[in-house]
Amino acid sequence: MSHLDQAAPSSGPRGRHAVDLQWFRGELEQQRRFRLDQLTDLSYQAAGAADDVQGEVTAALMSGARTVLAEIDAALFRLAIGSFGVCQRCGRAISVDRLQAIPMAGLCLPCQYVKESHQLGPDIVDVWGIDSFPASDPPANW
Ligand SMILES: [Zn+2]
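The joint structure predicted for all components is written out below.
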């Protein structure tokens, strides 16, 4: 998270681009509710999976939904600290077109290409963690 400190250059995107933060906040919160509902549905499906194949499909869907949820949470965090719309890698403003298409985008398009072509590690913090939903039970013999 230390690279957030240098997210805003001195000339800054502030005042230069008109990003409607309220709109993005609403959009992100709507998508967040959708993903939470989806995870709830999937956890019921996982509990009642008829066979291993269905269980694996459900697990894969849950993993994908958790990843998106972490990206949404990270974007809401950037909104809260005032660095929304700033590329997390190069510090330049992310284009409004890109943000409207993908409100949780944390990278500008050039950096996204670099990341995908070089297979760099994830730049988001997985605030949920792979084992945190649902909370893991204590060992059975405790
Ligand atoms: Zn960038």
